């Protein structure tokens, strides 16, 4: 008979002798709605007791029932008779009278048949449980907005949810069977490297979950950053047979974090700049206090002389002329004090950045006025060489003055026993930059310290003589103004700091003009 014909596909027709509890169990297990693998149809049940539990169930299911066992042999197309009563005489009669097409199995063999049916039933139930569990897991995978893939140990994709497919821009058919690194990284090899360690490789090696941040290339060529986590899927032996990979696009979140961090760094930098300004201001105040003491003493002496002379009844004309000279000197000294205090207040005032045209030469002279007495007390001789033309740049005058003040103080402190400070200012070749050089004859800088000079809180001074903010502020402020600072030094040979800023042409603009 050809394979697949209706005769070959029909279920095995079965008759049961004995309608008790075992018959009931067989009928329940052979329910066609529960056992799909075992194609058996019960066509008849016989028992002397017409009210036995198996007989009653058979009648309810529409199965032929009888109290005469011989009647079962008359059923059409009967394939098998199983005897559940363990009656040997009955078995002998059946063996003589049953049709040739039907086989008879006794009580012992029927137990084996019962066990086979039970095994089929358990297998069906387990498959149902597995199917439900698989459906449940698929519902969980499809229900999440994060990308999920199930990977074989060879990195091939076996399952993927819609979020993962949407992120990769491919269909489910295109994804299944491909390597994960082909889909997520557009690569031809696993993505394991020091910069992008593969969490799946770690999970396979350790049997534990792993995590990494990866850069995923999108179909349009753009790069997205993903938070990738992997979890082991193990069998009964505890062996990792598959890996669940969960990834989340954190590009926007990362951008927001970077932006917040950038703002925080800018705020911290502004605070450090102000703190450094206060440190420099304290030094300036000490210098200015001595600087204005001399003109105030002169004004006081001249005022006493004039007051004493005017106390007489008649003042000679020659003395009146001398008093006028005294008053002129007092006016000059008072104006000098006013300029010094005004410069100090301008430096100390905290205000928002106000970019404008700045003449570095004028700003440097103003700064030296404030520090002149400090240099005199420290035995530092100043040599100032500035170009005749204005050294114009664009920036915030208060911050640039802070740079100049820090560099001058740094040079003074590098010469505790006195020395020479040479400051030169001119335009670079091609007039693209204005350059100021501060060269001292101090102790110089050790080679191992040169690379750290502009790091925050790095200082070569002894404790109590600096917090290491000055030069880092110089570097930060100059970078904000598109400028640069360089240093050249050898131990015992002094140091040279070179400051460069973008140059502006002198077109008649005054400081404070608009650009």
Walk me through this protein's architecture:
The chain is α/β, with parallel strands linked by helices and 515 residues long. It has three domains: 6-133, NAD(P)-binding Rossmann-like Domain (Rossmann fold, 3-Layer(aba) Sandwich); 144-249, PAS domain (Beta-Lactamase); 352-515, Histidine kinase-like ATPase, C-terminal domain (Heat Shock Protein 90, 2-Layer Sandwich), CATH 3.30.565. It contains 16 helices and 17 strands. The chain has helices at residues 6-9, 21-29, 53-60, 88-97, 107-143, 162-168, 172-175, 180-184, 199-206, 251-291, 293-309, 317-348, 360-377, 397-413, 447-450, 470-480, and strands spanning 12-17, 40-46, 64-66, 80-83, 103-105, 147-151, 157-160, 210-217, 223-234, 240-249, 356-359, 380-386, 392-395, 419-427, 433-440, 484-489, 495-502. The strands form four sheets. Strands 3-2-1-4-5 form a five-stranded parallel beta sheet, sandwiched between helices. Strands 7-6-10-9-8 form a five-stranded antiparallel beta sheet. Helix 10 (251-291) packs across helix 13 and helix 13 (360-377) packs parallel to helix 14. The N and C termini lie far apart (101 Å).
